[in-house]
Amino acid sequence: MDFSKVDFLLSVHSIKQLPEEGMPEIAFAGKSNVGKSSLMNTLIGRKALVKVSARPGKTQGLNYFQVGNQCYLVDLPGYGYAKVPKAMKDAWQGLISTYLEKRATLKCVVVIIDIRHEAKAHDSQLIEWLREQSIPFLPVYTKIDKLSGSARGKHARLLDLGHGINKDERILFSSHTGQGRDELIAALQSFLFS
Is 64:103 a contact under the CB 8 Å cutoff? Predict the structure, then answer.
């Protein structure tokens, strides 16, 4: 699969706007400012197709990117501390949960977690909910370039323990160095074509 052949398709703000189900979809979820957009840009080998912002809550819809004629990548709004009105945050949550529960073409949710921090409740709740719904997911620990090798291993083990994840079920990733990109592509292809 060639992840470099990617185009922005549309931004969805209500379930009625979703594209017709056809091609498989991979969704990307994570706390606000966890490095979701940077990871997606690294995955597709482009600098700024997915907008990166220092301001939490920048992504306000389900942003669809089409990978050739093969699949969609769906950038979900960040969860957590985004400084947006409660009504808007509630609307996001309704849109996101309905999308995740009902979308038959959804093959996997990439759950992006900053390796530098201990296990957070928002991430644990999402992972547990995905398990309960039998929705396949792939944890990716980002920003690994910010830690030394020994600290990286220690933090990864603590996150594994905190989220009930086995070492072989997650990927360590750096948008800065590209480490983990090949493993991520291989994992996504296995979800898409299983």
Answer: no
CATH architecture, domain defined by 6-192: 3-Layer(aba) Sandwich (3.40)
If DSSP codes are grouped into helix, strand and coil, which group holds residue 103? coil
b/e string for 32-52 if b means 16 or more Cβ within 10 A? bbbbbbbbbbbbbeeeeebee
Question: Quick one: 174 exposed, middle or buried, by C-beta within 10 A (0-12, 13-18, 19+)?
Answer: buried
Q: How far apart are CA 139 and CA 118, in angstroms?
A: 14
Of 62, 40, 65, 38, the residue nearest 52 (C-alpha):
38
Q: What is the pLDDT of residues 84-137, one digit of tens each?
A: 556 655 666 788 889 999 999 999 999 999 999 999 998 999 999 999 999 999
